[in-house]
Amino acid sequence: MAEEAHSQVIDQVVQDALDKASLTERELSAVAVTIGPGLSLCLRVGVQKARRVAGSFNLPIISVHHMEAHALVARLIEKELQFPFLALLISGGHNLLVLAHDLGHYTQLGTTIDDAIGEAFDKTAKWLGLDMRKSGGPAVEQLAQEGDAESVRFSIPMKQHKDCNFSYAGLKTQVKLAIASRNIDAKVPLSCASSLDRSSRADIAASFQRVAVLHLEERCERAVEWALKIEPSIKHLVVSGGVASNQYVRARLDQVVQKYSLQLVCPPPNLCTDNGVMIAWTGIENFRVGRYDPPPPANDPDDFMYDLRPRWPLGEEYAEGRSEARSLRRARVHPSLSSLVQASLQQQ
Ligand code: KG4
Ligand code: ZN
Question: Which residues does the UniProt record annotate as the domain Gcp-like (predicted)?
Answer without folding.
Answer: 2-281
